[in-house]
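Example for tutorial group B:
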C-alpha cells in the first residue's frame, strides 16, 4: 500500500514538474519576445533619432545635463557629440548667449513644456541659424527626461523675409505712386488710401478710412452712372471710367478710375481696389492744345485769304473814295458811296481781327507808358460806352513800361470797354485799373500757361450781368457771341486774346452771373524807359511837295488806284506792276527817286529783295512796304523788323497820305 502511494506521488510530482517546466519555458519565450520587441523598438527609435531631419537633444529632467544628441543637430550647429554629452545646456557654446537658459529650464521643469518660435543660434563657425525650439518632458524608464526638438527654419525665415521685402516694395510703390489708390471692403467702406489720394482730395487718411467714397460725389454724375458702376464691380467685372469728383475744399476735379474686385481663395469678393488719376490738368492742357490748333487753323485761313481779300477791299475802298471826291455830298449817289465805304471798312476790320486772333497781325512795337496811353484814349472810350455808364480810371503810380504796338494796345482796351458796355443794361460803371504783378514759380505751377516774371496789369471791370462758367470757357473763341447777330461778330475778345498772346502776355477772367466781370491783362514789363508819345490827331491827309514816288504793285487795279491817290496828294508817280520793270525804270530815271512804295508779295521777287536792289542804284531812297499779309517777308512772327515802314492794306487816301509823309520826313 505504501509502495503504491509512493509511486503515485512520484508520478504526480513529475507531472507538476513538467507543467512548471512548460510554464517556465513559456515565460522565457514571452520574455524573449518582449526583449526582442524592446530591442526592435530601441532600434526603431535610434533609427528615427539618428535619421531625424530635426535636431534632437535629450536632457536629464532634474539636472539639465545632456544625455543624448542626434547627428543632425551636431551637423547643424557644427559641434561634436562630445561637445554636448554630459554638459549642462547653458554651458554649450551655442546656448551660452541665451541669458535666460537656466530660468527657462526651471520653467520647463515646472510646466513640462516650452516653445521658441523664432530662436537664433550661433554655429561653431559663427553663422546664425534660425530655429524653432520645442521642449517637452517625458517619462522614460521611470525617469523624467526632456526632449528638445530643434528645427532649422532658416530657409523659411529667408522666404518670409523675401515675402516681407516684396510686400514692403509693393506698399512703398503704392505709397509713392502718383495715382490715387483706394481699397474698400465688400460693402464699399474705405480701408486704405495712399498719400496721392490725400494730396488730390484734401482728405487725410484718418478722415477717409471708415467712410464711403460717396464723400467725393460732386453731383455731376447721374444716379444711373453710379448704379452701373456698382453693378459692374459687384458682378465681378472691372469698371473703367471718368468722373467729376469734389475735393474737401469744394473744388471739382476730373479723374479716370479703374475699380476692380478682389476675391479670396473661395472666389468670394472681399475687397475693391480703385486706381485713380487726376486728369484735370491733362484736360486743361488738351483744351489749350485744341485752342492752339484752332488758332493755327484760323491763322492759316486768315493768312490764306488776307492777301487777296485785302487787295479786293483796297480796290473797293480806294475807288469808292476817288468816286466820292467826284460827287457832291448833296447828291444821293454820295450817300450810297459812303455806305459802300463803311461796309468795306468794316470788312477790313474783320480781317484785321482774324489776323490778330491768329497772331499774324503785322505790328510795330514801341516802348509804351501804359498810364499815358490809357489817358490818351479816355475821351474816345467815354464816347464808346455812352453817358449812362460811369467810367472810373484808377492808375497805379510808378508803372513800368511795356513793349508793344500802340495800335494793338488800343484794340485791347477798346474791345474790353465795349464788351463791358454791352454787359450793362442801363446805368452802370466801368473801371480801368493798372498795376504791377509778379508771378513766382509756385503760382505758375498752379496756373498752366503762365511763366514767372514781372508783368504790367491792365484790368477792365464792369458791374453788369456777369457770365457763367460755360460762357467764360468760350468767350475767346472766334465768332462766339452772346449778342444778337446784328450787334457783333464775336471777334472782339478773340482779338484781345490773340494780341495778348502775340505779346507773350496772359489773360484772366473773373465773373459770376449777376456780379459783373473783370478782365485782367498781364503784359511783360519792359526794362527801360518809355518813349515819348508821338500821338497826334491828323484830320486831313498831308499834301506832297512834288517828291517822286516809285510805285510797284502787281495788281493793276490797286496800282492804278494808289497812283491816282498819290497824284491827288501832290506826288510825282512812276508806277509799274513788275519788279524787274521797276529796277529798269529806276536805273533809267534821270532825277532822284525819293520813295519806293512796293507790295511785299509779288510774282518775280518779294518787296524786300526789290528794295535791296534799288538801294544800290538810289542809296538815299526811302522804302514803304504795303501788303494785305506779309508772310514774314518783312516781319518775324508778325513783328516788323527794325527800321521797316509798313502800311496795311486796305488803306484810305488819308492813311496813305499820313504814312507817306511820315516816311519822307524821317531823318
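The residue assignment follows.
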Amino acid at each position: 500500500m505504501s509502495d503504491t502511494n509512493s509511486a503515485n506521488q512520484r508520478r504526480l510530482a513529475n507531472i507538476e514538474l513538467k507543467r512548471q517546466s512548460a510554464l517556465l519555458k513559456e515565460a522565457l519565450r514571452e520574455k524573449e519576445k518582449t526583449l526582442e520587441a524592446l530591442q526592435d523598438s530601441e532600434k526603431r527609435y535610434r533609427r528615427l533619432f539618428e535619421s531625424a531631419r530635426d535636431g534632437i537633444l535629450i536632457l536629464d529632467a532634474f539636472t539639465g545635463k545632456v544625455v543624448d544628441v542626434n547627428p543632425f543637430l551636431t551637423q547643424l550647429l557644427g559641434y561634436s557629440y562630445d561637445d554636448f554629452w554630459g554638459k549642462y545646456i547653458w554651458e554649450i557654446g551655442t546656448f551660452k548667449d541665451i541669458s535666460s537658459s537656466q530660468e527657462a529650464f526651471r520653467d520647463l521643469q515646472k510646466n513640462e513644456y516650452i516653445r521658441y518660435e523664432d530662436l537664433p543660434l550661433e554655429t561653431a563657425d559663427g553663422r546664425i541659424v534660425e530655429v524653432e525650439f520645442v521642449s517637452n518632458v517625458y517619462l522614460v524608464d521611470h525617469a523624467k527626461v526632456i526632449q528638445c526638438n530643434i528645427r532649422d527654419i532658416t530657409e523659411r525665415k529667408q522666404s518670409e523675409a523675401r515675402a516681407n521685402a516684396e510686400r514692403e516694395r509693393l506698399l512703398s510703390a503704392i505709397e509713392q505712386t502718383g495715382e490715387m489708390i483706394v481699397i474698400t471692403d465688400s460693402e464699399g467702406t474705405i480701408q486704405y488710401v495712399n498719400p496721392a489720394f490725400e494730396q488730390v482730395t484734401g482728405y487725410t487718411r484718418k478722415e477717409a478710412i471708415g467712410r464711403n467714397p460717396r464723400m467725393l460725389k460732386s453731383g455731376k454724375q447721374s444716379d444711373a452712372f453710379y448704379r452701373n458702376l456698382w453693378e459692374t464691380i459687384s458682378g465681378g467685372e472691372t469698371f473703367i471710367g471718368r468722373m467729376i469728383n469734389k475735393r474737401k475744399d469744394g473744388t471739382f476735379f476730373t479723374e479716370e478710375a479703374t475699380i476692380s474686385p478682389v476675391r479670396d481663395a473661395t472666389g468670394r469678393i472681399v475687397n475693391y481696389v480703385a486706381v485713380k488719376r487726376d486728369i484735370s490738368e491733362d484736360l486743361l492742357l488738351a483744351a489749350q492744345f485744341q485752342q492752339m490748333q484752332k488758332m493755327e487753323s484760323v491763322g492759316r485761313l486768315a493768312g490764306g485769304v488776307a492777301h487777296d481779300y485785302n487787295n479786293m477791299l483796297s480796290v473797293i475802298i480806294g475807288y469808292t473814295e476817288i468816286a466820292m471826291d467826284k460827287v457832291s455830298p448833296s447828291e444821293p449817289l454820295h450817300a450810297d458811296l459812303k455806305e459802300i465805304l463803311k461796309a468795306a471798312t468794316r470788312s477790313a476790320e474783320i480781317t484785321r481781327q482774324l489776323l490778330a486772333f491768329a497772331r499774324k497781325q503785322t505790328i510795330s512795337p514801341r516802348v509804351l507808358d501804359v498810364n499815358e496811353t490809357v489817358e490818351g484814349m479816355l475821351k474816345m472810350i467815354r464816347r464808346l460806352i455812352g453817358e449812362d455808364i460811369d467810367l472810373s480810371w484808377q492808375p497805379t503810380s510808378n508803372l513800368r513800361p511795356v513793349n508793344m504796338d500802340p495800335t494793338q494796345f488800343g484794340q485791347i482796351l477798346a474791345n474790353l470797354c465795349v464788351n463791358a458796355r454791352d454787359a450793362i443794361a442801363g446805368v452802370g460803371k466801368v473801371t480801368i485799373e493798372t498795376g504791377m504783378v509778379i508771378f513766382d514759380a509756385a503760382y505758375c505751377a498752379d496756373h498752366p500757361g503762365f511763366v514767372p516774371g514781372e508783368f504790367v496789369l491792365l484790368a477792365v471791370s464792369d458791374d453788369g450781368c456777369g457770365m457763367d462758367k460755360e460762357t467764360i470757357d468760350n468767350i475767346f473763341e472766334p465768332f462766339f457771341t452772346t449778342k444778337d447777330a446784328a450787334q457783333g461778330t464775336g471777334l472782339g475778345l478773340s482779338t484781345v486774346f490773340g494780341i495778348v498772346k502775340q505779346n507773350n502776355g496772359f489773360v484772366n477772367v473773373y465773373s459770376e452771373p449777376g456780379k459783373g466781370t473783370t478782365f485782367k491783362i498781364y503784359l511783360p514789363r519792359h526794362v527801360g524807359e518809355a518813349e515819348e508819345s508821338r500821338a497826334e490827331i491828323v484830320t486831313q491827309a498831308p499834301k506832297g511837295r512834288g517828291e517822286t514816288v516809285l510805285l510797284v504793285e502787281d495788281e493793276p487795279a490797286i496800282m492804278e488806284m494808289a497812283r491816282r491817290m498819290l497824284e491827288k496828294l501832290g506826288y510825282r508817280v512812276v508806277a509799274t506792276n513788275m519788279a524787274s520793270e521797276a529796277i529798269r525804270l529806276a536805273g533809267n530815271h534821270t532825277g532822284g527817286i525819293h520813295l519806293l512804295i512796293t507790295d511785299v508779295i509779288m510774282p518775280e521777287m518779294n518787296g524786300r529783295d526789290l528794295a535791296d536792289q534799288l538801294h544800290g542804284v538810289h542809296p538815299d531812297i526811302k522804302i514803304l512796304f504795303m501788303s494785305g499779309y506779309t508772310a514774314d517777308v518783312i516781319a518775324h512772327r508778325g513783328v516788323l523788323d527794325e527800321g521797316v515802314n509798313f502800311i496795311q492794306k486796305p488803306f484810305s487816301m488819308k492813311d496813305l497820305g499820313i504814312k507817306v509823309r511820315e516816311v519822307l520826313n524821317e531823318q
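The mean pLDDT is 84. Compare this with the pattern of hydrophobic and polar residues in the output above.
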